[in-house]
Specification:
Blueprint (H helix, E strand, L loop, with lengths): L1 H15 L13 E5 L5 H10 L5 E4 L11 H16 L22 E9 L2 E2 L1 H14 L3 E7 L6 H10 L4 E2 L4 E3 L7 H11 L11 E6 L2 E7 L3 H12 L2 E8 L3 E5 L9 E5 L3 E5 L3 E5 L3 E11 L4 H7 L7 E7 L18 E2 L13 E4 L2 E4 L1
Parallel strand pairs: 1-2, 1-3, 3-5, 5-6, 5-7
Antiparallel strand pairs: 3-4, 8-9, 8-16, 9-15, 10-11, 10-16, 11-14, 12-15, 13-14, 13-15, 17-18, 18-19
Bound molecules: flavin mononucleotide (FMN).
Flavin mononucleotide binds next to helix 2, helix 3 and strand 3.
């Protein structure tokens, strides 16, 4: 009887709920970005949203009512020819409606695009060209819909337009023959993707160099979890050296768990290299790294000055947001309303960080 009840409950559950694809429980937020001229990609997105939790963004051409297929696909061909002639110039791409969705909140992006003449539809190419830098570092997957042509050219376009993303897996091809079976194709495909981890816990770490302390927003992964545990015990001071004109780096003196992937490091990025080295970037470099976090709110020249770019044996202290830097404040001088560093020096123009004011640690 118990078994019958269980079976009944399971049937009830499966008939009333979405067919949820096997996406890891800790996957980060996903955005689906699509363009559809004749409705097939829209149907694919509807199927996708029945299988995973994701927000949806539709890309629309600025000029409405155009018939890309008229006169033997003349307009569609013309738009692609213009892009192919000058792919690095924004003026080669057809105008699209402005997009207000910020990609900051999303770790995963799924592109759904039609194929036009064995290439990515021109309207979607415009969007990717415009948002390439915002998409940098995201995990990206792609579904391509065509009548019958295979999708190698669309994959090439996507890689040209988005050089700095992490591809979640192979693109999925849906065509006129299998469009009706898209639900199972999509479900299987979603199960193969490498989704980025959730980043709900935006923990902070602090970096102190000389008199200046800056906050770092950490990503949520096993490396930062282990680093937080280490810093809970005591701040860590390391000696870093400038290298390559883009970073200061050196040994942490201990190892952290790695989840290396090709990363195009940007100014402010704090990164783990080879499991036991910390790299802090004031320039850019592409390598296989594990991301730790990013220094908050400093531009490139502020980063160069903070990180003492070009110098050697730079003493860098990593600590937690509690303000433990390992330095002992000189409280006797600090009850006068002025701002003092943790080592007791008066700071006329403090930047972001932890200071002493009226005998108390304050975060500015
Ligand atoms: C301008 C244009 C060019 C196309 N070129 C091809 C092609 O070369 N090969 C192909 O198989 N399908 C081609 N198609 C068909 C679309 O790829 C296919 O119908 C797709 O499902 C459309 O997606 P949508 O309905 O979301 O716009 C083309 C469609 C258009 C509008």
């Amino acid at each position: 009887m118990k078994q019958l009840l269980l079976l009944f409950a399971m049937m009830l559950f499966s008939s009333n709920s979405k067919v949820m694809a096997e996406v890891p429980a800790n996957a980060g937020k996903t955005l689906m970005v699509y363009y559809s001229y004749t409705g097939n990609c829209r149907e694919i997105v509807t199927t996708l949203t029945s299988q995973i939790e994701a927000d949806v963004l539709e890309i629309q051409p600025a000029e409405k009512g155009l018939r890309y297929e008229a006169n033997g696909y003349a307009l569609g061909t013309e738009l692609l020819n213009a892009i192919n002639a000058n792919p690095d110039d924004i003026n080669s791409y057809p105008a699209i409606d402005p997009v207000s969705t910020s990609l900051n909140d999303y770790q995963n992006i799924i592109i759904v695009t039609p194929l036009w003449w064995s290439q990515m539809a021109a309207i979607m190419q415009t969007h990717l060209f415009q948002s390439a830098s915002e998409m940098s570092g995201k995990h990206v997957g792609m579904i391509v819909s065509s009548h019958s042509s295979s999708i190698g050219g669309v994959v090439r376009d996507a890689k040209r337009l988005l050089p700095d993303v992490t591809w979640m897996g192979d693109a999925l091809w849906i065509n006129a023959n299998n469009h009706g079976r898209r639900a199972s194709l999509i479900e299987n495909w979603l199960g193969t993707l490498n989704f980025a981890e959730e980043q709900t816990t935006m923990d902070k770490m602090y970096i102190t160099i000389g008199e200046q302390t800056e906050s770092v927003t950490l990503v949520g992964n096993n490396a930062t979890k282990a680093l937080m545990e280490k810093l809970k015990q005591a701040p860590v001071t390391v000696s870093l050296n400038s290298s390559g004109g883009f970073e200061i780096w050196g040994s942490l003196g201990f190892s952290l768990p790695t989840s290396n992937e090709q990363i195009n490091a940007q100014p402010g990025d704090v990164i783990l290299y080879n499991g036991s080295n910390i790299c802090i970037f004031y320039g850019t470099n592409s390598w296989s790294y594990t991301r730790l976090g990013k220094i908050d709110g400093l531009n490139e020249s502020e980063l160069r000055s903070f990180l003492k770019a070009g110098e050697s044996n730079i003493s860098v202290t990593l600590s937690l947001s509690s303000g433990e830097t390992g330095l002992t404040p000189n409280l006797s001088t600090e009850g006068d309303g002025n701002i003092y560093s943790l080592s007791g020096q008066r700071i006329a123009k403090p930047s972001h960080g932890i200071y002493i004011k009226n005998n108390k640690k304050v975060k500015l």
